[in-house]
Known about the structure:
This protein is α+β, with helices and mostly antiparallel strands.
Amino acid sequence: MQKLFSTIHALWYRVLGGRLVGRIGKAPILLLTTTGRKTGKLRQLPLIYQPHGDDLVVVASNAGRPHHPAWYRNLQDDPHVSIRVGGDERPMVARTATDEERASLWPRMAAVYKGYDKYVQKTDRHIPVVILSPT
């Protein structure tokens, strides 16, 4: 169900240029495009984000499931991604935040989307915070 929702959300995001579907509540949404690690195909999905200087921050929560989301595994193989915020698309490089960075970024992400703290309680997995930097 989550995959279907993400696919539909990404389609409407592209069609509407982020208008009407660029937020979930107060949480801003971007489209992240990664390259499939097995297929080499481009994969696009909507994610909640927060700006952090010139960077953008996203969370690889996978709704608290016990394994990392496919997009996170994709960027571990190829960190070169693109993002779309509204109608603006640009290349970025992704990296996992250090433990120190995560400690300061997590509260900001959880403040914009309360579900993240619930996801931590659902899993034993260390949920990564990802920093997207302009290339």
